[in-house]
Amino acid sequence: MKKEFELNGQEFIELNKLLKLLSLVETGGEAKIVIEEGQVKVNNAVEYRKRNKLRPGDKVVFRGSEISIV
Fold first, then answer.
1. Mind listing the pLDDT tens digit for each residue in 5-44?
2. pTM of this prediction?
3. What's the N-to-C CA distance of the chain in angstroms?
4. What is the residue range of 10's domain?
């Protein structure tokens, strides 16, 4: 499933917050765990940084969802 996430004037959003905000995980703690376990890719590379700053043009892939940051 492809989605777009608009920053709405913000410079960035942190990866763990994005997963929670889009309800891809139930809690912030779960977001941290799935990131630490290497289940999330950012721009086609496994991302282990929970607070990686996502900016326009970045792509996140997690559990069959592809999110484009715009």
1. 999 999 999 999 999 999 999 999 999 999 999 999 999 9
2. 0.92
3. 16
4. 2-69
How many independent structural domains does the chain possess?
Answer: 1
CA-nearest of 22, 70, 21, 67 to 47 is 67
CATH number of the domain enclosing 13: 3.10.290.10
Q: For residue 58, what are its two tokens?
A: 């970045």
**C-beta of residue 24 within 8 angstroms of C-beta of residue 63:** yes
Q: Which residues of 2-28 are buried (b: 16+ CB within 10 A; e: fewer)?
A: eeebeeeeeebbbbbebbbeeebbeee
Tokens 């607070």, residue located: 51
Of the candidates 45, 38, 43, the residue with the CA atom closest to the CA atom of residue 59:
43
